[in-house]
Specification:
Layout (H helix, E strand, L loop, with lengths): L12 H11 L3 E2 L1 H9 L5 E4 L3 H6 L6 E2 L7 H4 L8 E4 L7 H11 L4 E4 L2 H7 L11
Parallel strand pairs: 1-5, 2-3, 2-4, 4-5
């Protein structure tokens, strides 16, 4: 008898390759962002949470633009080729996806940092508060 995991069989390998390869076009992870931010980051990191949450703790180098405030006028400060990476509180929050969707609708290249603040902290990386920015 099949378990709840195997009742629906895995996709064929070719389909799995296509699926998992495509994911990397949409997302990155905390380790890769951390490594890039330690050098010359070739993207803009956006914390799309509310300003009060950003003030309490955010990733050093991130800019705070709440997802509802991402507009064409606001994003005009960056060239059209600028890559953005959005993050929010964590896997329980869809703010990063909301911000990414707004950016994509503006024709901007964007990825989500999976895990958000919770993932960042789980990986052992520190947050910065506004008083120490």
């Amino acid at each position: 008898m099949a378990s709840s995991v195997t009742t629906i069989p895995p996709a064929p390998s070719a389909e799995a390759v296509a699926h998992f390869s495509a994911l990397f076009g949409f997302e990155t992870d905390c380790w890769d962002v951390h490594a890039a931010m330690a050098g010359q980051a070739d993207f803009v990191l956006l914390d799309v949470r509310a300003p009060d949450l950003f003030a309490r703790g955010h990733i050093a180098g991130a800019l705070n633009i709440p997802h509802g405030k991402i507009t064409a006028a606001r994003m005009a400060a960056w060239s059209g080729e600028t890559i953005f990476v959005t993050y929010c509180a964590g896997p329980h929050c869809n703010g990063a996806a909301r911000g990414a969707l707004r950016l994509a609708r503006l024709g901007r290249p964007v990825k989500i940092m999976t895990g958000g603040v919770a993932g960042w902290v789980d990986e052992g990386f520190t947050l910065q508060d506004v008083a120490h920015a």
